[in-house]
Write a structure and sequence with these properties.
Structural class: alpha/beta
Number of helices: 7
CATH superfamily: Ribonuclease H-like superfamily/Ribonuclease H
Largest sheet: 5 strands, mixed
Order of helices and strands: EHEEHEHEHHHH
Helix content: 40-55%
Strand content: 15-25%
Number of strands: 5
Distance between the termini: 39 Å
Shape: globular
CATH architecture: 2-Layer Sandwich
Number of domains: 1
CATH class: Alpha Beta
């Protein structure tokens, strides 16, 4: 019996000696083609969408890992599976993410894989380890430096490259999925990711 590969397995990570820096984020892909004006006027049905979770390479602008889920799936839960999968194909040196990804299990995975975290921890975070020494280090670093200096030290501004990726992705391939069933929507979104990466390869 042939085992079907997960969508993220389909993304090819280019071989090379230089380690990867990845940026995590998600965006919504619409599954309804209703006009926004009509929807705003009548509001009989909320706009439906699926989530595209990605790990983007800020250097190339390509998507190196992804997951397609329902709109209700939290960003944080998809971070570790994507990072672990990409790390099997290439050395990852640093991972950027916003506060939505601030979770002990994400920091613990980065610690396990020797990846430097650039995840914005919550302002109310305790410096107690609570099962994650690496997260404790980041909390103490922020407390000592303040967020502005922490962002400068980490080069946190690079995280916004993922917004450029989403803008290019939707500009080239659109933000609406035509498929009606969720499994078909996952396939359609996966194909769009591969087409986007191919487009970026041609551009470079």
């Amino acid at each position: 019996m042939v085992k079907r590969r997960k969508p993220a397995d389909m993304v090819k990570v280019e071989d090379g000696e230089e380690p990867l820096t990845v940026v995590a984020d998600s965006t919504g892909l619409s599954t309804t083609r209703k006009g926004s004006y009509i929807e705003a006027m009548w509001r009989k049905e909320k706009r439906k969408f699926v989530k595209l979770h990605v790990l983007a390479d800020p250097k190339t602008g390509k998507i190196v890992g992804f997951r397609v889920t329902s709109g209700k799936t939290s960003d944080s839960k998809k971070f570790s599976p994507m990072v672990r999968e990409v790390a099997k194909k290439a050395r990852v040196k640093k991972a950027y993410a916003d506060g939505a990804y601030d979770a002990r299990y994400n920091f613990n995975l980065l610690d396990e894989l020797s990846i430097e975290p650039a995840i914005k921890v919550k302002r109310s975070s305790s410096a107690k380890p609570h099962g994650s020494p690496l997260r404790k280090e980041e909390v103490l670093l922020v407390q000592r430096l303040g967020y502005d200096r922490w962002k400068e030290l980490k080069g946190y501004g690079r995280r916004w490259m993922v917004e450029v990726v989403f803008s290019a992705f939707k500009g080239v391939l659109g933000e609406t999925l035509r498929a009606k069933r969720f499994l078909s929507q996952k396939v359609e979104a996966s194909l769009k990711v591969m087409l986007y990466n191919r487009f970026m390869s041609i551009r470079s």
